[in-house]
Amino acid sequence: MKQPFDYNSIxxxxxxxxxxxxxxxxxxxxxxxxxxxxxxxxxLVETENHCQxxxxx
Length: 57
Hints:
57 residues; 75% helix; mainly alpha; elongated; 2 helices
């Protein structure tokens, strides 16, 4: 598996804001870092799957 890319912090902030609103509390620094790593991994998998679909057509 390839290494995930770093994205613009506004994308991370959007995910953090979403969970803080959903859970009705502020995330601590550890939770934010885990969310950011999960976001990067999810985007990597999404991109790889999208590329595979493009090649199979």
